[in-house]
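Sorry to interrupt, but I need a hand with the structure work. I would like you to pick a protein and set down its sequence and fold. Please put the record directly below this note.
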Amino acid sequence: MLGDHPVFPILLSKDLAASRAFYHDLLGLDILRDDEERIIFRCGGTQISVTSSTVGTADEQTQLAWIVPDLKAELAELRARGVRIEEYDDPFPKTVDGIADIGFVWSAWIIDPSGNTLGIVQAKPRN
C-alpha cells in the first residue's frame, strides 16, 4: 500500500540557480541530482525535488515542512546562514520571534526564491 512508502515533495522553481543557492548554500542540503530540469536534495531519509517551471507557484500556503527536535536552535542556525524567517501578525498564525503556537506544534516559515512557503515544525510534548 502507498502508506508504507516514503513520499517526496516536488517544488516549482523559476530560477534553478537561485534555488540551488538557497537549498544547498543557505539551508545546507546535499544535492543528489542536478540537471537542466531539476535539482534533487537529500533530507534525512527523504528528498525534495525542485523542478524548473516557467510560472512557479502562486500558492502561498505551506508546500512542505521539516519536523525538527529543537525549533529555536534550527532557526538560530538558519538566521546565522542568512535565511529570513517569516513574521506574521495575522490573528492566526501570529509569530513571536518567528515562531507560531499552532496548538499541537510550534511552527516557523521560510520562503524560497520562487515563492514556495516552507515550514519548520516542532511537536509539543504530549500530556
In short: The chain is about 15% helix and 35% strand. The radius of gyration is 15 Å. Residues 66 and 120 are 5 Å apart (CA to CA). The mean pLDDT is 92.
